[in-house]
Structure formats: structure tokens, C-alpha cells
Amino acid sequence: MSTLASVNAVVERLWPLSGAEPWDSPGVVVGDPDQPVTHVRLAVDPVLEVVDEAVDIGADLLLVHHPLLFRGATTMAEDTTKGAVVSRLVRAGCALIAAHTNADVVETGTSRALAHQLGLVDQRPITEGATSSTGLGVTGRLPRPMSLVSFARQLGELLPPTAAGVRVAGDAERVVETVALCAGAGDSLLDHPVVGAADVYLTSDLRHHPASDARDLMLLGRGPALVDVSHWASEWLWLDTAAAQLREALHDVEVTLSDLRTDPWDFTVVQ
Hints:
The chain has about 270 residues and is α/β, with parallel strands linked by helices. The chain has two domains: about 5-105, Udp-n-acetylmuramoylalanyl-d-glutamate--2,6- Diaminopimelate Ligase, Chain: A, domain 1 (3-Layer(aba) Sandwich); about 105-235, Udp-n-acetylmuramoylalanyl-d-glutamate--2,6- Diaminopimelate Ligase, Chain: A, domain 1 (3-Layer(aba) Sandwich). Helices cover about 35% and strands about 20% of the residues. It is built from ten helices and eleven strands. The strands form two sheets. It has a six-stranded mixed sheet, sandwiched between helices. A five-stranded mixed sheet has the order 1-4-3-2-11, with helices on both faces. The longest helix has 12 residues, at about 80-90. The mean pLDDT is about 95.
């Protein structure tokens, strides 16, 4: 029977911790290495409703993309969000593992999942990783050129719906073929030359000032159009890939996906 330790060994083989950013905190968060694991539940966020769902279905392990503890915690009191999550997991005997930036940089990572859904060809990472095919972000070409608005509509059909939808900066009729993308927060790559050379840059959590500057650059005839989508939605697509990899490696473990929407925004008001 698989244990938390043996499942974690598979997780580390698929998404090596050596690929994580220095500021990141992936790996085992909760659990006894010797505890049996028969059911793994996959989700993007370790939030309370996801934890309650995993506990209710009898999962032994919740494997998430986003770490629960980015910074040092001084309390696990149950009237705090982190304490409530940990306490509920411990009481139910459900372990918690996070695979974050270490799952972003691999050839089957979060950005690759999004790129494959878009049908990008000639894919390569934006940043250089351990090999020529690993690293943060992805650049590639659409199978055929299309307008920026058509590209945005295609995204809207691919991604799970969220309150904010798909936000775009650029001429709706601009022809796009080369795409740079980074699933999750990616404005740190806005100044990368590969991004600057693309027709469109797709990512999440674009802040006002970097986006405003990029928009001005467009008016000067340089730089990509911008497409900003939900952080959760851009990474949720990766769960299918992760589940398939785990099922192939863990024949005695059930692997299921959460379809709970954990994007933090509930609705928007059109002005």
C-alpha cells in the first residue's frame, strides 16, 4: 500500500524540489510519512472549502499547487485561516502536499498545459531552466494567425468561468500569431525580451503600473498586447495533466480533481 512518503517520492520525481524558486515553500505541509494513502485529491488552492471537500470524500492526501505557508507562521490557532486549514486536515488524517514553482518549470507544467490547450506549436520556455525544454513560461505560435479579440474569445471558451473574465489591452483587430504566456502571476516577465518580441502576452495578476507602461509601449509601436486572466483559472487546467501522471505512477491510489472555483472574486458590477 502507498504511504505519504512513497507518494511524496513520486511527487518529487515528477516535480523536483530543486526547480522551486528560492522564495517558494513546496513539499509536505501536513502528514505522517508512514500514513497510508489510497485517495489523492487535486486542487489549486488549500482553502477551507477545498479542505472540507477533501475530508468529506475521504481523501488521505490533498495535493495542491499553491503552498499554504509562504512565510513563517507564529500561530496555528483555529481562528486563523492557516490554523483552521491545518487543524481540519490533522483531525481528518488528511495530508497536504504543495507542488508550486517546481511544477511550473517542468516540461508538463502549468504554462505548458495552457499552451497545449491553445494549440501552440514550436513551444519553448521563456526562461532557461535545467534543460533547454524547462523553465518559466512558454512561447510559441498559434496554428494560424487570428485577431486579438478572437484570441481572447478562444481563451474564454477554454478557461473555467470567473467573475473578472478575460481582460485585454490592445487593438481588438490586432493580428496575433506569436504568443508568450505564463500561467499564474507573470508580470515579472514583462520586460523579458522573448515576451517583448511576442504579439501577445497572456498571464494573470498584472498590476496597474507595469500594465500601463506596457500599453504605452504598444502606442510607440513595440511590445505585445496584454491578456490578463484569473490566476486560479490559468493554473486549474494543469490539474488534468498532474492527475494523469499520478495515476500512471500510483496504481493503487485513486486520484480525483476538485472543480470548486477558488478564484477569490464572486461577482463584478458593470459600470
